[in-house]
Amino acid sequence: MYFRNYYGLYILLLLSGNIGRGVIHLNYFVLQVEQPILVYHDEEYKSKSWRFPSYNFSMSVIWSPFLVEAAIFEDINGVSSSEVELHLDKLDSKWTDQYLDFDYIIISTGKWFLKSAIYYENDTILGCHSCPKRNLSELGFNFAYRKALKFVMNFIVSSNHRGLIFFRTFTPDHFENGEWFSGGTCNRTAPIKEGEMEMKTLNKMLRDIELEEFGKAASEASRNGVNFKLVDFASLSQLRPDGHPGPYRQFHPFAKDKNAKVQNDCLHWCLPGPIDSWNDIIMEMVVNG
Predict the structure, then answer these.
(1) How many other C-beta atoms are found inside a 10 Å radius of the C-beta of residue 52?
(2) Residue 117 in contact with residue 86, Cβ under 8 Å?
(3) 127 vs 130, 137, 141, 205, CA distance in Å?
(4) Phi and psi torsions of 78, nearest 5°
(5) What is residue 59's predicted lDDT score, i.e. its pLDDT?
(6) Tens digits of per-residue pLDDT, 162-213?
(7) What are the C-alpha distances in Å from 203 to residues 142, 224, 261?
(8) DSSP per residue over 244-278, as a string?
(9) Cβ 131 vs Cβ 98: under 8 Å
(10) Checking DSSP bridges between strand 84-91 and strand 68-71, what pairing results, if any?
(11) Is the pLDDT score of 28 beyond 50?
(12) Does 265 score more than 90 pLDDT?
């Protein structure tokens, strides 16, 4: 098995909201080798660490949706009671404190930057995104996303990390006839052909920023001997509107009423599904460079 080639291997996944099922899948892949021991979890079970003793292999998931320091005010269903308070000049210590401990790192973020937020630098408010009730300058999510990614990638490329670091681009949602909060659904049952469904404008903006900032960081990483690679699944995932849980966001949503109106999940991914391909691609990049 692949993991036997790496003694004392540590993998870190830094995650935002739309990849959680992928963590479960990667863990399942390793489960075929050995039953893991859960050695850490935070209060909400968003950050976890597993240990595979006979392989001297560890895997950790760190929940850091913005990668920079953030105060988030929302319930388990994603309903916010106030704007996110985002410090664009402070990296989230949940991941930076452990960064050098891991041999392989996968970083992703993206969609959380679309949320209403107030932006800070030097503990001073710069402006906001989508805060009409506040007397603040509207800077837009793209301002914050570019600034945060630049800060994160500068940290990575100037680090002494000598493992392999992946930046995974965001993956698109497939809500149709509305969004998650307005009755949007994803009822397709088969992959689509290229060009059959256009990527949403906001998704294009996120991806363009990611590709631009990675391009700038990659050359600096190369000069500094940092092994920093891009995994861009956006176009591949765009072809899989059939790969989401849809109405099955909750367990047996129609058990009591087959005609019940339920919130659809067209952002996260089912297993098995598109994530199988993601894992294959990442494994190929790890094994064969």
Answers:
(1) 18
(2) yes
(3) 10, 5, 11, 20
(4) 80, 15
(5) 86
(6) 889 999 998 999 999 999 889 999 999 999 999 999 999 999 999 999 999 9
(7) 11, 31, 27
(8) S-BGGGSSSTTSS-TT-----B-SS--TTTHHHHH
(9) no
(10) antiparallel
(11) no
(12) yes
Is the distance from CB of 139 to CB of 126 less than 8 angstroms?
yes
Backbone angles phi, psi at 144, to 5 degrees: -70, -40
Amino acid present at 34: E
- 24: tokens are 């479960």
- The tokens 């992959």 sit on which residue? 191
Amino acid, res. 227 = N
